[in-house]
Amino acid sequence: MDLPPGDAEHLAARAHRVRLDRKATLMTPGSPINSVYFPETGALSEFVLMADGSAVEVGFIGREGMAGWPAVFGSHVSGVWVVCQMSGLFLQFATTELAAEVDRNPELHRRLHHHAAAVIGQRAISAGCDRHHDVVARAARHLLAARDLRVDNELVVTHEFLALRLGVQRPTVTVALAELERLGAVTHRRGRVTVVDRACLEQITCECYWAMRREIARHLDWLPASLRSSFSDASGAA
Ligand SMILES: [Zn+2]
User: Fold this and answer.
1) In angstroms, what is the span from residue 122 Cα to ligand 1's centroid?
2) Quick one: CA dihedral 118, 121, 127, 130, positive or negative?
3) Most buried residue, 191, 210, 227, 234, by most Cβ within 10 Å?
4) Domain for residue 122, yes or no?
5) Domain range for residue 210?
6) Which of 45, 71, 105 delimits the end of a domain?
7) What is the whole-number distance in angstroms between the Cα of residue 129 and the centre of ligand 1?
8) Cα(130) to centroid of ligand 1, in Å?
């Protein structure tokens, strides 16, 4: 998430810039939210954990977002497992520092609240998508969403992670990726999925991908043009 202009230096001076590697765990269900994280170049995922040990992704956090957002509302215990999905750099704020800054800075307060509204709106869309749309369309949605946050076309996505993101077994992911490859949208080799035809992927995905983009564009009005263009409604607006 971009910090408010004019305050960025002040805020950055109170943050630590940390490098996180893929699969690094930041929070677990029930753990205290001691810090929040703003991705600069990497991405994080939020998962709910089931009693049988299975996990389902409920949130994907890139440059537009933050991890630990319930702390903005005074909730300091995580309900989700937060894990690094894409290695990179992240700004880390102690939650105590964040609370003081939110009180001091109305624009930061506004951005964090609007971000939370976008997260809640996206989760509502995702709940409907999981119930009504097939796994190939949902896989295309996840790949497009991840692609929107990268500057290159290659995503380090393993079958294991995609299975977690889709809430399905790995053989189902294998079938879905094979179908996306047959249709010419992606190639995948040794755990790396490469988007080779974005337009094709956009044809395959469901309307939820576009609805989620609109949710981001509607709430996150401060995004820089370079990032905002990723969420503009130029296509698929139906
Ligand atoms: Zn859908």
Assistant:
1) 11
2) negative
3) 210
4) no
5) 131-231
6) 105
7) 4
8) 7
Among 71, 105, 139, residue at a domain's last position: 105
* Per-residue tens of pLDDT for the chain, all 238 residues: 777 766 777 777 888 999 999 889 999 999 999 999 999 888 899 999 888 888 888 888 888 899 999 999 888 999 999 999 889 999 999 998 888 888 888 988 999 999 999 999 999 999 999 899 999 999 999 888 877 766 455 566 677 778 888 888 889 999 999 999 999 999 988 777 888 999 999 999 999 999 998 888 888 887 776 666 666 554 444 3
Distance 1 CA to ligand 1 centre (A): 25
- The Cα 82–Cα 60 span in angstroms is 10
Scan for tokens 């749309």, then name that residue: 133
CA of 121 to the centre of ligand 1 (A): 14
H-state helical runs in the chain: 8-12, 95-104, 106-132, 135-148, 159-166, 170-182, 198-204, 207-219, 225-228
Å from CA of 125 to ligand 1 middle:
8
Question: Which CATH number goes with the domain that contains 25?
Answer: 2.60.120.10
Ligand 1 center–CA 136 separation, angstroms: 10
